[in-house]
């Protein structure tokens, strides 16, 4: 193997501030052979065996459409305070996406997808949400045990109650130490099938590097299906009906699939966040929805007035309609018209249009949902267009849910996708059916314990309304309504590119409406982008894997004593800290304990002094103890103590893992020559450099010229043959 000698000198600065982990290490060895290397874990990494964060190890996604979750469903109601849930299958590894069946220490997401109650009156109140019930409630829970094939016992009591009739799914969540999604690779999920799917959920102890994508486009609530029954003239009054002759199928929503809706699955009324189906004859479907402003909903969407004459056309519906707005999905376009007329002067319902007189009975747009109580939802399905000529297309599906629980950072150049679907066009010279509505945008949540999100982009936009593609005919049918935008929430909302745009309306290319191509279809409204508060906690009571978020833990020499310093970012039910010491890093002895701060979201600093530290290298360990006795043990810190000042000491270094650059803070007892050498794990030297060093402490920057990622050993030595050895990871 060729040893690459650096073309660059060590850059030295005695004033540079290094903000990496702080250690005090002094090792004197003559050679790597037989050396003892120290591995320094990331600050705050918990080793709580009961919680088992990181139990699935580091994960790199290198292929597209990788699915990392497994799903099952709740088979009976579960009440708040319960610790046992009944499920259809407790193994939760039917597709072998995990190394084994569900077991103690695993993490699951429990979430109720549907079950909202809506008004079913056949009037303007149809589809209003009377009660969300338990729909949208969720929590992450630790598994204590799996006693049989249909039961799961939880480590902590449920916070919420769940109704199995509301389609409660249980999602097995991988617990990674780190997650990397390579460029061109992606994570996705099973599409929602009415019982399970539509969700990507992962927990990551350290960091997520997203250069590829996480994609749940069109995985949410399903759009209305096509049917081929329609009557002429159509019904211009019904909001819901059991007769497919009178209207098309509604989109799926938090109230359930269209087939489960009381008093009828068809008609223009929008059920909760699902789009309404177009009424007969051949009106278009409305767009589904998800989030947004929850006041001022009318279901008629947002008219496109980008062409001045269209203002006049819209106002033929009613005075001032062109300037109205509505949150949620857009409305579907008008019914079938046979003749050519002027849409700028002759409005919907005018008999000159012939056919079904171009009536204004397109499906209403879905409603925006209320996120203020901490619930989450998938995007609603669009409503179908009324059809009878075998050219209609199914309505757009809503976007699914992406939920990332990340202790550290999310970074990279990739994208998270949770968009609603745009329906295909009705096609050909006989494309004489109503178009369908677009799907509502999905939901993306990124919850950080201490880190942040940067670099990536997020899309939770709605699907566009379906369009009509007609040739050689003067008839026209309605274009589809655009969907309503999705929901994105991130801890400490970062300045990254995020889209929750509403979907634009579809258009008709019929020659008879060329002066007004929306032909009654309107656009959906945007969704919401919010910052998650620091107090937000998605885990069940006591289920957070890191009840104490540790910002730093260091050991320093202070007047021939060992000074232990640590700082917490937040604490949950923290009773006290235990301090321990070990000469070999294996067997620890009790030193003392210090009172914690209970529950707090404010940073707190602590210190403890060991008046009689061990000579040579020893190790100090910090343990946090909850009020209920649960413990969290943090990684030990090495400390070297000697009575003379003749040794070279490494005071700080980082980052580890490193990419291209490594920073060091070193103290020298005299003027000397510093030599840095990098070895592979099997002892082959691959890089070296040297530099003059002067008495005192100074910072140095190394640029190891190695390309292969993996584990390396860095040896630092001076002219007096004093040696420091470090174990590094090249990313």
Write the layout of secondary structure elements.
Blueprint: E1 4-5, E2 11-13, E3 22-25, E4 59-61, E5 66-67, E6 70-73, E7 84-86, E8 107-112, E9 117-118, E10 129-131, E11 138-148, E12 151-154, E13 168-173, E14 175-176, E15 179-181, E16 186-188, E17 199-204, E18 208-210, E19 213-215, H1 308-315, E20 401-406, E21 410-411, E22 415-417, E23 443-448, E24 457-459, E25 487-491, E26 497-499, E27 528-532, E28 548-557, E29 562-582, E30 589-600, E31 604-610, E32 616-626, E33 631-633, E34 637-641, E35 649-654, E36 662-668, E37 672-680, E38 685-693, E39 696-702, E40 710-717, E41 723-730
Parallel strand pairs: 1-38, 4-15, 5-16, 14-17, 15-18, 16-19, 17-20, 18-21, 19-22, 20-23, 22-24, 23-25, 24-26, 25-27
Antiparallel strand pairs: 2-39, 3-35, 6-13, 7-12, 8-11, 8-13, 9-10, 11-12, 28-29, 29-30, 29-31, 29-32, 32-33, 32-34, 35-36, 36-39, 37-38, 37-40, 40-41
Poorly predicted regions are: 1-51
Using the alpha-carbon principal axes, give the shape: elongated
Considering DSSP H and I runs of 4 or more, what fraction of the residues is helical?
under 10%
Based on CA atoms alone, the radius of gyration comes out at 31 Å
Quickly count the domains. 4
Which whole number gives the mean pLDDT? 88
Q: Terminal Cα separation, in Å?
A: 20 Å
Percent strand: 25-35%
Number of strands: 41
């Amino acid at each position: 193997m060729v040893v690459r000698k650096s073309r660059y000198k060590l850059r030295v600065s005695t004033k540079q501030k290094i903000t990496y982990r702080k250690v005090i290490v002094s090792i004197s060895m003559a050679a790597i052979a037989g050396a003892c290397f120290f591995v320094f874990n990331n600050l705050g990494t918990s080793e709580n065996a009961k919680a088992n964060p990181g139990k699935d190890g580091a994960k790199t996604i290198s292929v597209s459409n990788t699915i990392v979750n497994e799903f099952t469903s709740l088979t009976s109601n579960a009440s708040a305070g319960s610790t046992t849930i009944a499920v259809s299958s407790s193994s939760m590894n039917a597709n072998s996406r995990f190394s084994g069946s569900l077991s103690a220490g695993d993490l699951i997401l429990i979430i109720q997808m549907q079950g909202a109650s809506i008004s079913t009156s056949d009037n303007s109140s149809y589809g209003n949400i009377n009660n969300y019930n338990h729909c949208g409630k969720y929590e992450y829970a630790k598994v204590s045990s799996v006693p049989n094939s249909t039961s799961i016992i939880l480590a902590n009591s449920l916070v919420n109650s769940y109704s199995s009739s509301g389609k409660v799914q249980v999602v097995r969540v991988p617990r990674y130490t780190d997650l990397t999604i390579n460029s061109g690779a992606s994570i996705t999920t099973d599409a929602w099938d009415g019982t399970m799917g539509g969700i990507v959920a992962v927990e990551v102890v350290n960091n997520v590097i997203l250069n590829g994508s996480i994609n749940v486009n069109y995985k949410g609530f399903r759009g209305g299906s096509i049917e081929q029954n329609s009557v002429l003239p159509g019904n211009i009054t019904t909001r819901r009906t059991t007769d497919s002759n009178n209207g098309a199928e509604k989109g799926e929503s938090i109230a359930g699939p269209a087939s489960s809706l009381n008093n009828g699955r068809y008609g223009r009324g929008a059920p909760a966040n699902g789009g309404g189906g177009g009424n007969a004859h051949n009106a278009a479907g409305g767009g589904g929805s998800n989030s947004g402003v929850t006041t001022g909903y009318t279901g008629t969407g947002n008219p496109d007035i980008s062409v001045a004459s269209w203002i006049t056309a819209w106002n033929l519906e009613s005075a001032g309609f062109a300037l109205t707005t509505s949150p949620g999905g857009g409305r579907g376009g008008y019914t079938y018209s046979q003749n050519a007329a002027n849409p700028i002067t002759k409005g919907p319902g005018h008999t000159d249009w012939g056919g079904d007189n171009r009536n204004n009975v397109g499906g209403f747009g879905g409603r925006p949902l209320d996120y203020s109580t901490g619930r989450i939802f998938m995007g609603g399905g669009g409503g179908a267009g009324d059809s009878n000529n075998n050219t209609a297309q199914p309505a757009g599906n809503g976007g699914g849910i992406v939920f990332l629980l990340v202790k550290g950072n999310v970074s990279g150049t990739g994208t998270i996708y949770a968009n609603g679907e745009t329906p295909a066009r009705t096609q050909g010279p006989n494309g004489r059916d109503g178009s369908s509505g677009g799907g509502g945008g999905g939901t993306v949540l990124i919850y950080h314990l201490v880190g942040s999100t940067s670099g990536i982009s997020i899309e939770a936009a709605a699907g566009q309304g379906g369009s009509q593609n007609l040739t050689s005919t003067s008839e026209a049918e309605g274009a589809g309504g655009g969907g309503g935008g999705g929901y994105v929430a991130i801890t400490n909302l970062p300045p990254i590119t995020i889209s929750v745009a509403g979907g634009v309306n579809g258009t008709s290319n019929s020659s008879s409406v060329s002066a007004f191509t929306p032909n009654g279809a309107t656009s959906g409204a945007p969704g919401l982008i919010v910052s998650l508060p620091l107090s937000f906690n998605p885990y069940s009571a006591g289920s957070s894997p890191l009840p104490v978020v540790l910002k730093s833990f260091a050991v320093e020499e202070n007047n021939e004593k060992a000074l232990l310093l640590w700082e917490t970012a937040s604490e949950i039910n923290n009773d006290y800290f235990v301090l321990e010491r070990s000469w070999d890093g294996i067997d620890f002895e009790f030193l003392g304990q210090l009172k914690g701060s209970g529950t707090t979201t404010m940073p707190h600093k602590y210190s403890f002094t060991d008046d009689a530290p061990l000579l040579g290298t020893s190790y100090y360990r910090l343990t946090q103890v909850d009020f209920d006795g649960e413990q969290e043990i943090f990684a030990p810190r090495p400390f070297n103590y000697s009575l003379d000042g003749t040794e070279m000491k490494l005071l700080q270094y980082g980052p580890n893992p490193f990419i291209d650059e490594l920073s060091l803070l070193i103290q020298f007892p005299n003027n000397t020559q510093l030599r840095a050498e990098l070895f592979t794990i099997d002892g082959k030297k691959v890089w070296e450099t040297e530099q003059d060093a002067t008495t005192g402490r100074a910072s140095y920057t190394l640029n190891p010229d190695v390309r292969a990622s993996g584990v390396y050993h860095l040896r630092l030595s001076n002219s007096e043959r004093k040696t420091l050895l470090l174990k590094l990871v090249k990313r």
